[in-house]
User: What shape does this take?
Amino acid sequence: MARTENLNAILYFEAVARRGTLSRAAEELSVSPSAVSQQIKLLEQQLGVKLFRRDGRQLSLTLEGEQLYQSAGTALRMLKDARRNLGRSRETRRLNLRVAPSFGVLWLGPRLSRFVERHPEWELRVDAAPDPTDFDRELMDLDIRYGTGNWGGMHVEPVVDDDILPLATPDYLAGLGGDPFGQARFIDSARNLCQWDSWLLRNGIETRANRKTLLMDRSSMALQLALDGVGMVLESLAVASAEVAEGRLVPVAPKLPVLRFPAHWAICPSRYLGRKAVQIFLGWIAEEAERHAGEVARIVARHGLTVESFESVTELAG
Assistant: This one.
């Protein structure tokens, strides 16, 4: 019985330490504040130390309490992980995936039908969100994330490169005459790793001080403005390859190199790599990335473009 009481006491202690008062902890645990108080007193008696300093109803951790809280938090997270993993073992045909919104809509979305056709027995849940997954708290198997690849403590592997170049509709480009960068309205995507200021500086292009710029929060919005003939957009073929392949958008400066660097990554805790769902999806998306690379190569050849490759976007900035 003592062991059971100790486990209960640790659970109650962790809730009080995290919530700051007996009443809030009791509400979370669906018990009375007196029951929580009794468990805390029992734990302090068993350990022979004071775990909290009491200031009215507010509680703060002692040094010994802080040490126990760190250990208890780690242990409880491990138990939650184990419980989630056991639950997943009963759902071996479900994949929970998070993806950056524009990439999800413009790159992944049009390709998902091929995944479903190949794996019709799998349930697929896709969550398009701008923030990375907190794998300790969220029920996700894998995250396809846009960024520099710097996610500490995670398994990280590149999936799709960014191939950056300025694009516009044929009609808009024709209307700019012989000085496109002097006359154009510039469309930027706020979340892009490479934006107009960096691209212009790298290519030694000066524009007028009062140039017109439109800043969008998403690549999907920036692309739509360009397709509507509002201006020229600096974008990646990762999200604009279909528009360029179909001729709805064309390269503005074909003599300048396309800038290539890894930008879209698959991330998850290393222990998730043993999951069947993760293995299947990583294998499938690698094939789709290879297919996409072939599409980009055809665009590059058709427009007589050159490609300048970088190992990272930080190398590009340097």
About this structure: Residues 1-5 have pLDDT under 50 and may be disordered. The radius of gyration is 27 Å. The longest helix spans residues 63-89.
